[in-house]
Specification:
The protein starts with 7 loop residues before the first strand and ends in a 32-residue tail after the last helix. It has one domain. The protein is mostly beta strands. It has one helix and seven strands, in the order E-E-E-E-E-E-E-H. 3% of the residues lie in helices and 55% in strands. The protein is globular.
Amino acid sequence: MPKNSKSVSIIGEDLKIEGTISCDGKLIIKGLLEGTLLGDEVIIAKEGVVTADARVKRIAINGIFKGELNATDELAILANGNCSGKVVCKDLIIESGGVLNAEVVYVTVEDVNPEPDFAPPPEEEPISKAGYRPIINLLGPNGN
């Protein structure tokens, strides 16, 4: 299979999984999942029920999600979707009819890739013969 190709995995309606699921590519959940969910793109179908601690890039919920959800790119709650618990996401989409009953934290790109909020300490000016450091040195480094 080509390296750029992403796989599609399906948890069927009659399947119940307890534990940790980790999936590259697309995961479609039509059954029941309880535990931990790690993945790229997740779709919870209308018949799907997920109770989990989830860390995903993108998720579309058309079924039921309960738990803690961290979507680094996008969370979409579709018309039949119901999401409850605690949510951290960058982009949030809720279709008409979709239900969000959660504590929501919105993160920006800077939150995902934070820049240091500190600067290195400035080099200290030498103490003058009078015993103080000049606030502004107008003469230059050699006193000229």
